[in-house]
Automatic annotation (TrEMBL):
GO terms for molecular function: asparaginase activity. InterPro entries: AsnASE_II, Asp/glu_Ase-like_sf, Asparaginase/glutaminase-like, Asparaginase_C, L-asparaginase_C, L-asparaginase_N, L-asparaginase_N_sf. Residues 4-201 form the L-asparaginase N-terminal domain. The keyword Phosphoprotein does not apply. Transmembrane segments: none annotated. PROSITE patterns: ASN_GLN_ASE_3 (PS51732). This is L-asparaginase 2. Residues 221-329 form the Asparaginase/glutaminase C-terminal domain. Keywords: Hydrolase. One of its GO terms (biological process) is asparagine metabolic process. The active site is at T13 (o-isoaspartyl threonine intermediate).
Length: 332
């Protein structure tokens, strides 16, 4: 019997139809409604050859509009899907690539289901010549059905590669190989003959985490201050005026910022706001320097700024203690 897999479609390029087969970039202006899960499966019937795929109704919007409310809805929906069908092999979530890595990491930290969950998207719309939507979907289903996928947390599958939600990031605007894990590489590959793994992530992830967003109305506010030559702290002051509970500094590599911005961040710490020092470089750890400790900043480890923001928001939902938050960044 084929494994039963639930497919949730949240929108994005994988659910888009363009002006024609050669439209690979201007499809958002075509005016076609985004396909729902059933519509995507109808367009790529090959998906049903590798699994018994159950389409799940969900609101479809461009991924630029997805954040905490969607993450919470997905966590609750995944709970319900597994409760309703204990024999469910896993869940595939179709998602736009703009914020796919952020939803993947948020779910990696908050899902409470034990079955594999894979996020999948595409760089070309479903209507395009040589679209990657169909093969990415088929491969995501194959990865979910693979027994070795259990216990790895949330996974991301595109371009025949399997990535850990914590490590992966979008690195190119248009290229099919856009999703990369700069420091560690892919976990494995979805080849035509087999799903193959070569490493396992060690940091803690779903469902064994301390974060539960199912009863929350919102996450604590965390903003990102991007370092650049001459930054004077204006952004930091605006974040404080807006009620930020935490600020992530997307600093110069390996983890610093311009003098004016630094003064603003030190002022934020003095006001009880947690500051996490990340790097805009996109690769590498922020070292635990003496100055980092003197400033009262928490190091982001090797998380990029957008993922450090998610982890800090979740950490602030359980504690305000900077020492415990530092331990959280060493754990996840």
């Amino acid at each position: 019997m084929k494994p039963r897999i639930a497919f949730i479609a949240t929108g994005g390029t994988i659910a888009s139809l363009g002006h024609g087969a050669l439209d690979t970039y201007d499809y958002a202006s075509a005016g076609h409604p985004l396909l729902d899960a059933a519509g995507i499966l109808d367009r790529f019937p090959e998906a049903q050859t590798v699994a018994d795929v159950r389409p799940v109704a969900f609101s479809a919007v461009p991924s630029t509009g997805l954040h905490f409310p969607t993450w919470k809805s997905l966590v609750v929906l995944c709970d319900q899907l597994v409760a309703d069908d204990p024999g469910l092999a896993g869940i595939v979530i179709g998602h736009g690539t703009a914020t796919l890595e952020e939803t993947a990491y948020a779910l990696h930290l908050t899902l409470k289901v034990a079955v594999p969950v894979v996020l999948v998207g595409s760089q070309r719309p479903a209507s395009a010549l040589s679209t990657d939507a169909g093969i990415n979907l088929v491969n995501a289903l194959r990865v979910v059905a693979e027994p070795a996928s259990r216990g790895l947390g949330v996974l991301v599958v595109l371009n025949d590669e399997i990535h850990a939600a914590r490590d992966v990031t979008k690195t190119s605007t248009n290229r099919l190989q856009t999703f990369r894990a700069p420091d560690f590489g892919a976990l494995g590959h979805a080849d035509g003959d087999a799903i193959t793994y070569y490493r396992r992530p060690l940091r803690r992830g779903a469902p064994q985490t301390e974060f539960d967003i199912r009863g929350l109305e919102a996450l604590p506010r965390v903003d990102i201050s991007y370092a650049y030559a001459g930054a004077d702290g204006t952004a930091v002051r605006a974040f404080l005026e807006s009620g930020a509970d935490g600020i992530v500094s997307a600093g110069f590599a390996p983890g610093s910022c311009a003098p004016g911005e630094l003064e603003g961040l030190k002022h934020a710490v003095a006001k009880g706001v947690v500051v996490v020092q990340s790097s805009r470089a996109g690769s590498g750890r922020v070292p635990r320097t003496t100055k980092l400790g003197q400033h009262g900043f928490v190091g982001a480890d090797n998380l990029n700024p957008q993922k450090a923001r998610i982890l800090l928001s979740l950490a602030l939902s359980v504690t305000r203690d900077p020492a415990r938050i530092a331990a959280i960044f060493s754990t996840y």
